[in-house]
From TrEMBL, chains A, B:
Entry GO MF terms: DNA-binding transcription factor activity; transcription cis-regulatory region binding
PROSITE patterns (alphabetical): HTH_TETR_2 (PS50977)
Keyword DNA-binding: yes
Pfam families, per database record: TetR_C_24, TetR_N
DNA-binding region, residue intervals: 33-52
Keyword DNA-binding applies: yes
Domain HTH tetR-type residue range list: 10-70
Annotated protein name in UniProt: TetR family transcriptional regulator
Keywords associated with the record: DNA-binding
Amino acid sequence: MARTAGSHSALTAPRIREAALSLFARHGYAAVSMRQIAAEVGVQAGALYNYIPDKQTLLADLMRAHLDDLLEARAALPLRADPMQALEDFTRFHIRFHAERPDAVFIAYMELRNLEPDNFAQIEALRRRYEDTLTAILVDGQGTGAVAVADPRIATMAIIAMLTGVNTWFRQTGRLSLDEIEDIYWGMTRRLVAA
Amino acid sequence: MARTAGSHSALTAPRIREAALSLFARHGYAAVSMRQIAAEVGVQAGALYNYIPDKQTLLADLMRAHLDDLLEARAALPLRADPMQALEDFTRFHIRFHAERPDAVFIAYMELRNLEPDNFAQIEALRRRYEDTLTAILVDGQGTGAVAVADPRIATMAIIAMLTGVNTWFRQTGRLSLDEIEDIYWGMTRRLVAA
């Protein structure tokens, strides 16, 4: 079947990302070669370079895409005015978004060490923008008196680590559904910050 | 200077572990060869096999040593009878122990994927023993009425993820000392579980 270069490219680029994501998550960035990624996609190694200049760009693209998706999905949620309601929405959103993307989350944390300085700065800035949305809720809650935390920035890091930690043990086949886990974590988050 | 085989071995084995720890943390287990580890230690690759049969054994040994140290250090702390005091001790101990060993902590979480099944089961059993010490404090606290959590096991995972998360952002040169961070995290942990 004849395919135009455009449609071919449109199909291949996402497949390269998907293959790289899976291989990096399984073996680690440093252990995976462009040749292995090409083999997983089913193209010649040389053809890969039509889509991506090098492995570092691929890693940074994967992390950027993950954080762009995160920021976009977060921005699409209506932000409720009440800080505790906004915090509940954040908690449930964060758990669900991350539980659905274990490979991307794993790479986003673990392969920071392999980013070159410019890419690292870009990725950190995106991550910081996401963290800032939680800090803003906590500061807002301090303003209304609903929230009392010693340090909103540290509380942000603590809550995000606690919620992302679900990924280290959650299995779809476990004793609790993700809905039940959301409920339990919202209970803990609420108590952690409530005045 | 003449050295006996015994003293040589006693000196080399820890240096192999130290080199492997550092290389695995920087590049990832899968990307590091026994040859690179030997070069870092300053011995021939062949000599390495006098100390360690293969890279998998080395990885499992590193993780086991980390968790043995953790369990030993934890067991050395007097366990206070009051559950909230015991929880405070756990919180401060966990943060300090992990902040002092960023490479070992990084590997203990990140390289689980590279453990063969028998090693994985052993490492998970050790980790579970440590987690159980926290769950026991929470259950104890539920008994005295000091603690109210929906699910002691989930609260255990949440607290450990929150506390270990300090490692992802803490720098000795930052605006807060580790003592101050301990205080803030103890405040959050207390509120998270207090009845």
